[in-house]
Amino acid sequence: MHAWPASEVPALPGKGRDLRIHDTATGGRVTLAPGPVARIYVCGITPYDATHMGHAATYNAFDLVQRVWLDTKRQVHYVQNVTDVDDPLLERAIRDGIDWVGLAERETALFREDMTALRMLPPQHYIGAVEAIPGIVPLVERLRDSGAAYELDGDIYFSVEADPHFGQVSNYDTELMRHLSAERGGDPDRPGKKNPLDPMLWMAAREGEPSWDGGSLGPGRPGWHIECVAIALDHLGMGFDVQGGGSDLIFPHHEMGASHAQTLTGEFPMAKAYVHAGMVALHGEKMSKSKGNLVFVSKLRRDGVDPAAIRLALLSHRYRDDWEWTDEVLETAVERLGRWRAAVSRPDGPSADALVEELREALSDDLDTPTALAAVDRWAELQTAEGGTDESAPGLVSRAVDALLGVAL
Fold first, then answer.
1. Cα–Cα distance, 168 to 187 (Å, whole number)
2. pLDDT tens-digit map of 290-326
3. Could you give the domains of the chain?
């Protein structure tokens, strides 16, 4: 599966700072100091209704992580999946009376278009669940053969008790885990499971649903969590720098994925930091496909909204915070974009050297984008009020905003 084209990231003078970021597993900030190549895995979409503002906020956060790393003169190895076969996708296809493969392809193509418009840096490896199945089957077989998984009516389940570190990503108690499992695709009440929290690794073929050759597992399709584990281990290996996604993936998805990987390899942890973006609400409720309260990037673009303004709207909030999308949020972003573009359109201006360092410091401090935007606001205000004589300043501001915030002026 192919990703989307990469926009050029301008090189800035000097060198950026190492990223200090909140790690869900430890509950505090960690300083990430990768080697020459930083490794990041971000969980992708289930392509049946893309791309709403919650998606955009999540991928914006991890785009910023990449930009901070690139500014430190590192390379970035970024991997993202597409869950192109799963119950929600199949259910939507049945509801709409369309082929599930066509639905997945259509929505994935739209997602690529939105990511391109928003100047999100693409992954080096963009892998669909279906194409990953040949690598998933051997992992499930290994877990089963080692006693870390078991069969129940043809389905294969992972035993969470096989991982001594289970629970150390979310640090949730059992009651909350069970509640979230039921809410987010698990089946804690299924009779016969060894532990209600045990997640499915391989679903035996169901009548009327797609299935693939599972070798000794029999025909079927993979569970949600093992999909990402197979892709991450294949392309990044254990101990990669960041496992990313929305905060709704903390449990069960990232918890279970970590346990799968740790049990398979005997190594701990799967990732050095588990980083999660907050949820975006509309009319007082989290944006959700099931609720239908969505604001789509593609709809805004069709309505003539500049993608750079959409990105500025996302950047106006801390990535970890839950926040609400409103018309005022977008209007403020549109106005800010206009002010910034007017400021950099002049032939000279106030020195921007300090501004570049302010942006670097803000972003290295747990991706503090509101502080970064305020710094550019101050430079633009000074440009409007007093101007300056530095002929290089407008160009430097434009390059810095592009390189570090992903906003083209």
1. 21
2. 677 899 999 999 999 999 999 999 999 999 999 999 9
3. 1-409 (3.40.50.620)
